[in-house]
Amino acid sequence: MATTQMLEKESNPWEQQAARFNLAAEKLNLEQGLWRVLQQPNREIIVHIPVNMDNGQLEVFTGYRVQHSIARGPAKGGVRYAPDVTLDEVRALASWMTWKCAVVNIPFGGAKGGIICDPKNMSRGELERMTRRYTSELIEFIGPEKDVAAPDVNTNEQTMAWMMDTYSMHMRQTVTAVVTGKPLNMGGSRGRREATGRGVMIICDESIKKNNMTRESTRVIIQGFGNVGSNAALLMHQAGYKVVGIGEWDGGLYNSKGIDITALWEYRQKEGSVHGFKGAERAATEDLLITDCEILVPAATESVITSANADDVKAKILVEGANGPTTAAADDILADKHVFVMPDILANAGGVTASYFEWVQDRQGYFWKESVVNEQLEHIMVSSFEDVVRYAETHKVNNRIAAYMLAIDRVAYTIRQRGIYA
Ligand code: GLU
Questions:
Q1: Residue 355 in contact with ligand 1 by CB distance below 6 A
Q2: Ligand 1 in contact with 153 (CB < 6 A)?
Q3: N or C terminus of the chain: which is more exposed, having fewer CB within 10 Å?
Q4: Which of 85, 97, 381 for a ligand 1 pocket mutation test, highest count of atoms within 8 Å of Cβ?
């Protein structure tokens, strides 16, 4: 039985990332030097951000931006606001962005940012001032060709609008391509908001095809009803999947006959929460992770499937909508149970892929129809799925290690060709 202390260590995202990286690097026979290079982030920035709060107090928040790699292009990755953000977490997330962009073969490196704060208890004005000061503290390190931010946990299109505006004011010109996930009227892309959820659905579609299943006979449980979970749930419901469970941070919903997700969306729009929705029973989110279903989609935070509950997971297919929802110790348990795992660096790559489209559109000043975005997204997600599964079969490794190997191989190839400047 795992103790709390053991679980805490098991749940450190940086160690989770390192465990998979080391395993994949070893299987690839990666040379020691490149191993050392890719093991560490390229640059880690810590900023202390003074913010005038509404009550007249001056508060100081700690923020991070970690750029793991710029080998294949500008650093790319979201910014999250949460009370439990740590440097190790942001480091891990930055490395995952490098691997994710390489798995889907888009010309970006990897980065991530975070601010330790409690956004649920901050006013709009406080969030705006914090976002602007954070952006200005990073001014010389970000830019369309340097490092391009995007939304992540507890940040959204409005946050990106403030970041874009702050950067643009410093540059004395509007620079839309400095962030992605912006509102449509200021250089955002059609389809970006739904893209991570759409990518999750595409990966579910490919996974059920591979396992000879149909949408209609597939029960799905989704943990998280934020941008990723709610869009995946809606698209999958509309496509004919039976979404039987939705887990939120403060409790979930279950209906064995399937939840009407369109009605749930309307309900949440009106009430601000999924609680009290009549079309399902209340269920504890921890229980939903181990409830009978064909596909489980953890789409909230890190380390929710650990050595403590992996053995109880009933799903046949695990599609990681969140970054790092499964610990390395849980990987082995899931492998023994023959769960078909679609790792985060493939399964949730739809978001950054549409971000790439947004960046391209901003730089060209020419904007695509939504059908073009969705078509290009589908093409990239399907071919990346095929690449990862083929790699796993050829090299006799699980899908996660295959995705890491494919990614590390691509990044290492570029670094070898560019050479090390010294
Ligand atoms: N935050 C998202 C992720 O973890 C999107 C990143 C991006 O679009 O740059 O993939």
A1: yes
A2: no
A3: C
A4: 97
Q: How far is the CA of 96 from the centre of ligand 1 (A)?
A: 10
| Both tokens assigned to 79 | 């910014």
Query: In angstroms, what CA-CA distances link 39 with 24, 27, 151, 176, 398?
Result: 12, 15, 25, 32, 21
Atom of ligand 1 nearest to the CA of 78: 1
The pLDDT tens digits for 296-311 are 999 999 999 999 999 9
Contact 407, 98 (CB under 8 A): yes
Which residue has a Cα nearest atom 8 of ligand 1? 352
Chain centroid, CA 81 distance in Å: 14
pTM of the model: 0.97
Exposed / middle / buried, residue 330 (Cβ in 10 Å: 0-12, 13-18, 19+): buried
List active site positions.
112
Give all domains of the chain, ordered by start, each with its CATH number.
Answer: 41-187 (3.40.50.10860), 193-342 (3.40.50.720)
Which residues is 60 bridged to in the sheet?
50
Residue 351 in contact with ligand 1 by CB distance below 6 A: yes
Q: What is the pLDDT of residue 405?
A: 98
